[in-house]
Design goal:
This protein is mainly beta and 170 residues long. It is built from two helices and ten strands, in the order ββαββββββαββ. β1 and β2 form a beta hairpin.
Length: 170
């Protein structure tokens, strides 16, 4: 079992979760890797025991660039989890990766969830939360939790041209 703590909340990864363990270990090494199906060659997220497109069980872990655009977001103003209460409002982002976007159909993408964080890897402050919306270009960073777990999180991609993001009306 791999154990850690994030914002005072315990996290654990049981070794029986064989398809999740390598994912979080790569993240802990600062690498973003996904399973590439040995049958059809498509990448998949989240990690799983079989390909969602062809059901082939064999896969290899391959490096993937952690860049993309916000597909959707949830702005949390009332945190049920007490450890997150000091950080409200915070954003949970669903990001369309640039890799494999529009494959196997034009409306599909690898979509990876994570929190919006600042350049130091801390949950983003309200002024940054207000600037991010659908379409914002993002870059993945990793928040260490333990020697075997890191959480993939998102920062604004400072190297990309930023479109005017769409936000839900307030």
């Amino acid at each position: 079992m791999i154990e850690g703590s994030y914002l005072g909340m315990p996290l654990e990864l049981n070794e029986r979760e064989t398809h999740q363990v390598p994912y979080f270990r790569y993240c802990a090494q600062g690498e973003f890797r996904l399973q590439k199906c040995a049958g059809c060659g498509l990448l998949r997220y989240p990690p799983g025991t079989a390909c969602p497109w062809c059901a082939h069980a064999e896969a290899d872990w391959v490096p993937v660039e952690g860049r993309g655009s916000v597909h959707s977001y949830m702005e949390v103003h009332h945190s049920i989890q007490p450890a997150l209460q000091p950080f409200v409002p915070y954003l949970v982002l669903l990001v369309d990766l640039d890799t494999q976007n529009g494959v196997p159909t034009p409306h599909e993408a690898l979509r990876v969830i994570g929190n919006l964080v600042d350049a130091r890897g801390k949950l983003a402050p309200p002024d940054l939360v207000r600037r991010v919306g659908i379409g914002t270009r993002m870059r993945m960073v990793f928040t260490p939790v333990s020697s075997g777990i890191a959480l993939p999180q998102w920062v604004c991609d400072e190297t990309a041209a930023q479109p005017a993001p769409w936000r839900y009306p307030e």
